DNA sequence: TTTGCAAAAATGTGATCACAAAATGAGATT
DNA sequence: AATCTCATTTTGTGATCACATTTTTGCAAA
């Protein structure tokens, strides 16, 4: 029996067992803690989370709704496998969704919020220098999320996070094989564009950031990574 | 006690109770059977579906993951309310997602598939003439879905359907107050563009279809509808 | 060593129950 | 008539169990 390693996660007071299980598993998948093809069991996770099947099953069901997991025909629960074509599809979706979200956030961002975003960008570099890949990844997600969620009535963030979740497993593999995370410096560009309230430039910077970051892996590189992981 | 009316739905052999509950409720919300703000109960639905709380609760949890329902702080389960701003957000997301999906589907569509799409378009008009709004709506969704899912490795369809689900409740209200469903004839335009393999023209036609169809309701019209429904 | 098959274990599913929290309603008070 | 209080009911939560299916294991035959 292999013990499933889950990232640490403080359980806030009053959080239901189900919500805790969901948040914990979601976070684990998002930062690449599970490899593609990994299979999980309800009872196994219930034990790892010190609870019972019912809330865990609900959490797993929710995770399948957002593409983070898959219930197979034979009732097995697995982390979806990634193909180069699927990867390309995910990246192009990220670009479409996030340029859209970024463009529509511009008008809602205050000067103060933009400074906060710049601070988050600085923290990304700090984490990279400290060699903490997962922390850098989380900070990078916070950078994007903080921009997009400036728009108060927005629906798009859950959809974007669904795509992030689906990219999580390959991201985990990439982190194992890339000695250092390099972040293309499109963030500064995006921040400058935010200050100028230039919606097109913001959208372009975000698109370029994705394309040159994780999106920079071409199909061959992804195929290579998947071969290494197999 | 009010009996919840759910659209008919044959239960395929071998389908689990949970899957059935999920499909049934999802379909009901998608075609506007629930009004915004409606609250549902686990036990109530379990009784209506002749099953027990466990599978129903799982289905409800999944539906919240895709924005079709909401678990409130006080543990009440409701159909999300719509504001004019949220409505506008949903429409702009539909345009972004569906133009993207349509563009990327073009290369995968065979002549035969395009003819099938044209046939679906004809059936929409039939249903409108027969006065069956729900059937027309379902056929319209099939028209869009058939185009987008021509791309085999696509991830976008579940995201699009999440947006459709969130538009469902207001769509139901609109159907109550609009005597006849008018469908803008952008479908022919899209089909012609598909035949020419003109990706830009397809994307434009789909965007226009959404903008002039349900997207044609401006914020005032939506506010008016919501007032009527309240 | 490999293959085939039956027993055993593991696993998802769904119903049920006890519990706590929230909502509801009746009756008293102002 | 309106408001507050408290008992009752409703409702979500989570643990448990029985059942059916699938997977794994163990052992014998080729």
Which structural category do the helix and sheet elements of chain A fall into? mainly alpha
State which percent range the strand residues of chain A make up: under 5%
Shape label of chain A:
globular
Q: Major sheet of chain A: size, sense and barrel closure?
A: 3 strands, antiparallel
Sheet with most strands: strand arrangement of chain A: 1-3-2
- What is the β-strand count of chain A? 3
Low-confidence stretches of chain A: none
Instruction: Give the terminus-to-terminus CA distance of chain A.
Output: 20 Å
The radius of gyration of chain A is 18 Å
The interface involving the most residues is between: A-B, 34 and 34 residues
* CATH class bucket of the largest domain in chain A: Mainly Alpha
